[in-house]
Design goal:
2 copies of one chain form a homodimer. By secondary structure, chain A is an all-alpha fold. Chain A contains 10 helices and no strands. Chains A and B meet through helix 1, helix 7, helix 8, helix 9 and helix 10 of A and helix 1, helix 7, helix 8, helix 9 and helix 10 of B. The structure holds a DNA duplex (30 and 30 nucleotides).
Chain lengths: ~190, ~190
DNA sequence: GAAACAAGTCATTCCCCGTTGACATCCGCC
DNA sequence: GGCGGATGTCAACGGGGAATGACTTGTTTC
């Protein structure tokens, strides 16, 4: 639980500011995702990164800076840009039906974002990020009428699927699972199309 | 901001343990919803309740106890049971299109629950509560095939709408708003119906 | 009306955690 | 090889906030 050595295994080679910076950032993303802003402690993060807590201050300018860096690093347009109008609905539907523990990285990233969303201090920060990096791409390729309303509804459904998946870790079984995928895909597709 | 006197206006009559207990609980629900567990301070809660912080300890056995008491008090089946297969889709759609600040009580309650969801300690508690009090009623009145899959999808959409509404406080305007309501209602209705 | 108990107040303590600055160590460069 | 800047370590500080316990004030009961 405490050792995130799996993520930063071979770090103690030489003195390398970039490497430790990256290790700290990786550990921070995990801790923030798991425990939220207040529940994540700099000492623990540093320990998991194999670094000293004081370095966090030097490299990120304090806990706030670290959090913002981790947030920026968690909202990458990559995840979105690989989707298009064609594959979006089906891919998302299949992804959502799976275990919560598959695709660990993405799950952690989303846990992190959810933490940010529920913390009043960080919510505005998240808001603009989501707006720029998530909503904007979607708006681009859905087209048609009432783009704003549809994009927002699409984002809502997407978020809801993620949250529900986080809260309940037992996946659906057999025929119910198929029905879920089918209906989810149809739902998303209809939002994309018209 | 600081005075929640609107909720506990006429308390200072006589010495009444039950009344102050209730006042504290009410204030706590607001503060926890607004600021999360760590962001809510016992001194502030006590102040808003017109009580002393030490009483929280006496009555609830510490901050944890207060939080759990507030959580239990927030998960009431009332909100769901007033919905039925007929009015669900439309009511929800309209509710979601509004400002985040209308329907204060219900919004606060949900903010609180969302806080609980992101808190590792309280998440399991919330899980069973949502399952029993939210999913179960929905399952009852949707009927038809693949009830489990549909109920889950419905819950996902519902949660997503709430979260999205929390994150973005600017409501949609004019024609986009109407489009949003219409599409949301249609979406929910289709999930309820088949 | 006075004792006994409950409700409320106050000051203090204690712990946690982010931050800071001084110190040690390593690496590149001339 | 030694100088200087960059990297890493350590101990201490300080603020904030929950918890504690003694003290005061009100209320009930006989």
């Amino acid at each position: 639980m405490t050792s995130a050595a799996t993520l930063a295994p071979e770090r103690p080679r030489k003195r390398d500011a970039d490497a430790t910076r990256a290790a700290i950032l990786a550990a921070a993303k995990l801790h923030f995702a798991k425990s939220g802003y207040d529940g994540a402690f700099l000492r623990d993060i540093a320990a998991d990164a194999g670094a000293d807590a004081a370095l966090i201050n030097r490299y990120f300018g304090g806990k706030d800076g670290l959090f913002q860096a981790a947030l920026k690093d968690s909202i990458r347009p990559d995840a979105i840009s690989q989707w298009s109008r064609e594959n979006f609905a089906h891919d998302v539907a299949k992804m959502m039906a799976g275990h919560a523990h598959q695709s660990v990285e993405r799950t952690h990233a989303f846990e992190f974002l959810l933490q940010a969303a529920t913390n009043p201090a960080t919510a505005p920060l998240l808001n603009v990020a989501v707006q720029e990096r998530f909503m904007a791409p979607i708006r681009d390729w859905i087209g048609g009428d009432h783009v704003e309303a549809r994009a927002r509804l699409l984002a809502s459904v997407f978020i809801g699927l993620l949250v529900e998946r986080l809260i309940r870790d037992e996946p659906l079984s057999g025929t119910e699972r198929e029905a879920f995928i089918e209906r989810t895909a149809a739902l998303l597709q209809s939002l994309v199309d018209h």
